[in-house]
Specification:
The complex is a heterodimer of chains A (104) and B (390). Chain A has two helices and eight strands, in the order H-E-E-H-E-E-E-E-E-E. By secondary structure, chain A is mainly beta. In chain B, helix 1 packs parallel to helix 5 and helix 1 runs parallel beside helix 9. The chains are: A mainly beta (104), B alpha/beta (390). The structure holds flavin-adenine dinucleotide and FE2/S2 (inorganic) cluster.
C-alpha cells in the first residue's frame, strides 16, 4: 500500500472539509494549502497564461514563482501554494490576469 | 591537416564619431549620425538602456510643453518617431494613444484652457473634453473630475526596447562595459578621442550622451556642465487588461515638471502598457544618486492615482523602480558643440522628456557633426549657456 506523507510523519490531522474547484467538490485537510489540496485531488492546473492560454499550476511550491495563481472566492492572483484552504473556499480557474472585467 | 594562419583580429578603434552613452539619446545620435554617412562607435560603461532609459517611462509628449524651444523639439521628434516606427520592429511598442490631461475643478480647467490656447498657436492639437464626455475616453476615470483636454499627438514607446532597436538599426559599432575615463586632446586642444578602462578610441568628434552623468563626463574633459539627477519613482501594477487607454495625468503635473525646487513633488500620471501592467508616476526630487526606496513617495503616488482611477484601489502594485532624470537648471537639454572644446558635442540633460526628445536631438547632433544647417534653432540648447564663455 502506498504510504502518504501524512503517514510518514505520523500526522494526526483534524477533520477534513470541502472546498470547490470550478464547482467540483474537493476534500481538504486543515492546514493544507489550496495547491496541496488540488494536487491531492489530482488537479495539476488551475490557471491559463495571459498570452497563449497555456495551463499552469504549482511550480516552486514556496511562494516565489507566482505560477500557481488562482482566483479564490472571486479574488484573482492568489498564490495557491501559500494560501491555506478554508472550508467552503471556491477556487475558479484563472484565465490570464484574471481581471478581464476591468477591460475597456 | 590544414595549416591555419592566424591573422590579427581587426581591431579598428577609429571612427568619425564616438557617442558616449547607449541610452535613448545616444542611440538616436548614433542612428542619425550613421544615416548621415559617418562611422560611429557607441561606448557605454554598462548595458544598452542600463541608465535612465531603462528606469523611466516611454511617453512621447507634446501636451506638457509650453510654447518655446522644447516644444519645437518635441513636435519635430513626434514626426521623427512616426517615421522611425515605420522602419523599426513592432517590439518598440509605439502606440499613438494620445494624452488626456484632467482637472479636478473649474479653476484647473481654466488653466488648462489657457495652456492649450498657447500651445495651439505653436502647432499642438488639443480638444477640450467636458466632464460628461471624459467617461467616453476613459471609462474608469473618477466621475467627479471637472473635465480635461485630449492631445492626439501624444504617443508612447517601450523605451529600453526602442533604444536597443534604434541602436541596432544604426549599424554603429557598440562597446559595452567600457567606461570613458578621459577625453584625449592634442597639444593644440583639438579632441582626438577617448580613453576607456581598456584602451583608446580615436575620433575627431565625441558626443556626450551620458544622460544624468553628462556633467561627470564633462568634468573628465575639465569642463563644467551642471547636470543634476532628479529622482523619480514608478509604481507598477499587476498585469491588467487595457483599462487606461491614454496617457492620463492631472493638470498639476505641468507645474511640477517646471519647478526648480529640490523638494519632493508628486502628481498623478497613469498609463497602460502593451505588456499589461499600469505604470503610475510621477515623483520628482533632487536627492543626488540616492536609490533608497521612499515609502512616502510610493504612498503619495498610489493615493493620487486611485483618486483619478478609483478602480486601481482594487489591483495590486507588484513592484517599483526609480530612475534619475538628467536635470539642467533651466529645464532645457544641452544640445550642441561645447564652445570650450569644439570637437565635443553635448546631447544630455533632457530631464523627464529624453525618450520623447531623442530623435530630434539625434537629428540635430548629426546635422552639427556634418556641418549642416540644424532643423531647428539650437541656440536655446547651447551647452555654453551656463558659463560666461560662449
Ligand atoms: C521615473 C521616470 C519617468 C520618466 N518618464 C519619461 C517619459 O515618460 N518620457 C520621456 O521622454 N522621458 C521620461 N523620462 C526621462 C528619460 O528616461 C530620460 O530623459 C532619458 O532616458 C535620458 O536618456 P539618455 O540617453 O540621455 O540617458 P541614459 O539612458 O541614462 O543613458 C546614459 C548612458 O551613459 C552611460 N555613461 C555615463 N557615463 C559614462 C562614461 N563615463 N562612460 C561610458 N558610459 C557612460 C550610462 O551607463 C548610461 O547608459 C523619465 C525618467 C524617469 C526617471
Ligand atoms: S508555486 Fe511558485 S509561487 Fe506558488
Amino acid at each position: 500500500m502506498a504510504r502518504t506523507p501524512g503517514e510518514l510523519v505520523g500526522a494526526r490531522p483534524g477533520t477534513p472539509f470541502e472546498i470547490t474547484v470550478d464547482g467540483r467538490t474537493v476534500t481538504a485537510m486543515p492546514g493544507q494549502s489550496i495547491a496541496a489540496a488540488l494536487w491531492g485531488a489530482g488537479i495539476l492546473a488551475w490557471r491559463t497564461t495571459r498570452n497563449t492560454g497555456r495551463p499552469r499550476g504549482a511550480f516552486c511550491g514556496i511562494g516565489q514563482c507566482y505560477d500557481c495563481l488562482a482566483t479564490v472566492n472571486g479574488e484573482p492572483n492568489r498564490r495557491a501554494c501559500l494560501l491555506p484552504a478554508r472550508p467552503g473556499d471556491a477556487i475558479t480557474t484563472q484565465e490570464g490576469h484574471g481581471h478581464a472585467g476591468l477591460g475597456v | 591537416m590544414q595549416c591555419e594562419i592566424l591573422l590579427p583580429v581587426p581591431t579598428s578603434n577609429s571612427s568619425d564619431v564616438i557617442v558616449v552613452g547607449a541610452g535613448m539619446v545616444g542611440a538616436a545620435c548614433a542612428y542619425y549620425a550613421a544615416r548621415a554617412g559617418l562611422s560611429v562607435t557607441v561606448v557605454d560603461r554598462g548595458a544598452v538602456a542600463g541608465g535612465t532609459t531603462g528606469a523611466g517611462e516611454g511617453n512621447l509628449l507634446v501636451s506638457d510643453k509650453e510654447p518655446g524651444p522644447e516644444l519645437e523639439l518635441a513636435l519635430l521628434s513626434a514626426r521623427l518617431w512616426q517615421e522611425l516606427t515605420a522602419s523599426l520592429p513592432p517590439q518598440i511598442e509605439y502606440e499613438a494613444k494620445g494624452g488626456l490631461v484632467v482637472a479636478s475643478d473649474a479653476a484647473g480647467m481654466e488653466a488648462l484652457r489657457d495652456f492649450a490656447t498657447g500651445q495651439h498657436k505653436a502647432g499642438v492639437m488639443a480638444e477640450e473634453i467636458p466632464c460628461d464626455r471624459l467617461g467616453d475616453l476613459e471609462p474608469h476615470l473618477a466621475p467627479t473630475l471637472a473635465g480635461g483636454f485630449h492631445y492626439p499627438q501624444d504617443a508612447q514607446v517601450q523605451p529600453a526596447l526602442a533604444a536597443a532597436h534604434l541602436l541596432r538599426a544604426s549599424g554603429a559599432r557598440i562597446r559595452l562595459g567600457e567606461e570613458v575615463t578621459h577625453l584625449l586632446t592634442q597639444a593644440d586642444g583639438d579632441l582626438t578621442g577617448v580613453r576607456t578602462a581598456t584602451g583608446t578610441l580615436h575620433a575627431p568628434q565625441v558626443v556626450n550622451a551620458a544622460g544624468a552623468w553628462g556633467g561627470e563626463l564633462a568634468r573628465r574633459a575639465g569642463l563644467d556642465l551642471p547636470v543634476l539627477p532628479r529622482r523619480g519613482f514608478v509604481l507598477v501594477t499587476e498585469p491588467l487588461p487595457r483599462m487606461v487607454r491614454h496617457k492620463v495625468y492631472a493638470a498639476d503635473y505641468v507645474a511640477d515638471v517646471a519647478s526648480g525646487s529640490a523638494a519632493l513633488q508628486t502628481s498623478a500620471v497613469v498609463e497602460g502598457t502593451a505588456a499589461g501592467p499600469v505604470l503610475i508616476g510621477a515623483s520628482r526630487e533632487r536627492v543626488g544618486f540616492d536609490r533608497t526606496l521612499s515609502a512616502e513617495v510610493l504612498r503619495r503616488l498610489a493615493a493620487q492615482a486611485t483618486t483619478l482611477f478609483p478602480v486601481l484601489a482594487g489591483v495590486r502594485a507588484i513592484r517599483t523602480y526609480a530612475g534619475f532624470r538628467p536635470y539642467l537648471p533651466d529645464h532645457l537639454p544641452a544640445i550642441g558643440r561645447d564652445p570650450r572644446m569644439p570637437g565635443l558635442l553635448h546631447a544630455c540633460g533632457h530631464e523627464g522628456a529624453g525618450i520623447g526628445l531623442a530623435p530630434a536631438t539625434g537629428l540635430l547632433i548629426a546635422q552639427l557633426l556634418t556641418g549642416q544647417q540644424p532643423a531647428v534653432d539650437v541656440g536655446p540648447f547651447s551647452p555654453g549657456r551656463f558659463t560666461s564663455v560662449s
